[in-house]
Amino acid sequence: MIDSKLKEKAAFAILLAATIIVIAPVALILAIILINGLPALSFEFLFSIPRDGMRGGGIFPALVGTFYLIVGTALFAIPFGILAAIYLNEYAQRNRLTRAIELAIINLSGVPSIVYGLFGLSLFVEFLGFGASILAGSLTLAIMTLPVIITATREALSAVPRSFREVSFSLGASRWQTVRGVVLPNAIPGILTGTILGLSRAAGETAPILFTVAAFYLPKLPTSVYDQAMALPYHIYVLSTQVPNVSVKVQYGTVLVLVGMIFILNIVASYIRSYFRKKKTW
Amino acid sequence: MVNNKIEIGGLNVFYDGVHALKDLDLKVREKEILGVIGPANSGKTSFLRCVNRLNDLHDNFKMAGKIMLDGKSIHEIDIHLLRKRIGIVFALPLPLPLSVFDNIAYGPRTHGVKERTKLLEIAESSLRAAALWDEVKDRLETSAFKLSGGQQQRLCIARTLAVGPDVILYDEPCSALDPISTLKIEEAMRSLKENYTQVLVTNNVKQAARVADRTAFFLMGEMIEIDETSRLFTAPADKRTEDYITGRFG
């Protein structure tokens, strides 16, 4: 008896310790970023161009660049990702080909992001001649995000009970009417959540944009999709390794803005999830 | 002169190579209620889901044999039209996550009815036919999940009626319901006799005795016998039928 109580205590202690060890670094990182970065935040920091060889001024071009990249990625990745997922989940027959496609998609989400960067460089920048541009960067990020969106969408579609589909078919509805009428409306929350999480990951990536869009220093806003642009992740890399004597305040301030952006996207995703979970009736 | 609504000849059904239905020959008469009884895995549901081709959604389904609706093979009828003409009510009440009204309107909208006044008319007449109108007429816009189980199942019947079928299939429609709700469903079936041909698959032998005009007994994929309900229950031709209806197995 004593033995089992002791074991219980030991198990509890070990599990708790493991959890703390996992959480501690994350908390520490966030704390350090907040303490060092908050003093840098100001209207001027967010909305003015960098000065003094990026040692002063603001980060506006990088902020705008990252915003454009998120929008561009969303424009390419969301429609194709969702439509492909609908095809794979609702239309495609289960056979060797679809299983191979599914396996490929799972593997694609494990490909290192620098590989996507090099792929984007050779396909979009050079072969298709887009040059280093917002277009090439967005397409590269979109290709990287597609597997995430497809997987999340398929999970959301599969979570809709099979019986809803049967009811719809039994009333004489076509496959597309069934998808439109009962499957999609009930899968939308899951699709939205997964999509936003995928985009937020893309927003923070450096490797895919390194060769495809990111400008080292460009003190003006891009005017077309064929322009290069600064972007927050790459700007952070530049500030911390490529430019001497940048104040810690500016470095951490930039990091804080990027982390904050991603944080906001994730909050929106989890808000959507909990909002629809409350409304869900089945 | 008896008209046959559905004629089935030499029907064999396989799922994943399992022989679920063997050489079924069966005629469903116009505007009768045909009861189908039998223990689990006897092929009752397989038979039902062949008739409106819901089995086609199953990946490893194979069938051989003939199924005719009004003298025409069901494979020659457009599948959406076929399912419009042959409605089905499932074992569990399966309302869609929509309002009461939108549940009814789902089918007609699918088939191109857009005007709200027309849809409201359809909703009222189908809900009346399913004996549910008086209970829900003031809450057509509430979620169908707010209704009781028995009401949900009658809503499903109304939803089936809304697309204007001539045949209604019931797949153990009362297996999840209490006795009073069950009686209401049975009453609805009796009143629907005037206009519809109905096939009632049921686990509940007494239910078949109460509502069916004729009853068929299925066992392990074979139809053992089919007869007028009164005769099947008083003087079954086959020993196995007698054993089943007297509760000796199943």
How would you describe this structure to a colleague?
The complex is a heterodimer of chains A (282) and B (250). With 282 residues, chain A is mostly helical. Chain A has two domains: 2-40; 43-279, MetI-like fold (Orthogonal Bundle). Helix content of chain A is 75%, strand content 1%. Chain A is built from eleven helices and two strands. In chain A, a hairpin with a 4-residue loop joins strand 1 (50-51) and strand 2 (56-57). Chain A is globular and about 70 Å long. The two termini of chain A are 44 Å apart. The mean pLDDT of chain A is 92. With 250 residues, chain B is of the alpha/beta class. Chain B has one domain: Rossmann fold (3-Layer(aba) Sandwich), CATH 3.40.50.300. Chain B contains ten helices and ten strands. Chain B has helices at residues 44-51, 79-85, 100-110, 116-129, 133-136, 149-162, 179-192, 205-211, 229-234, 239-245; strands at residues 4-15, 18-29, 33-37, 61-69, 72-73, 86-89, 167-171, 197-201, 214-219, 222-228. In chain B, the strands form two sheets. Chain B has a six-stranded mixed sheet with strand order 6-7-8-3-9-10, sandwiched between helices. In chain B, helix 3 packs across helix 4, helix 3 packs parallel to helix 6 (149-162) and helix 6 runs parallel beside helix 7 (179-192). The radius of gyration of chain B is 18 Å and the shape is globular. The N and C termini of chain B lie far apart (36 Å). In chain B, 46% of the residues are buried. The A-B interface holds A 93-94, 163-174, 177, 181-182, 185-186, 280-282 and B 52, 54, 57, 59, 80-84, 87-88, 90, 92, 94, 96-97, 106-107, 109-111, 143, 145, 156, 159-160, 163.
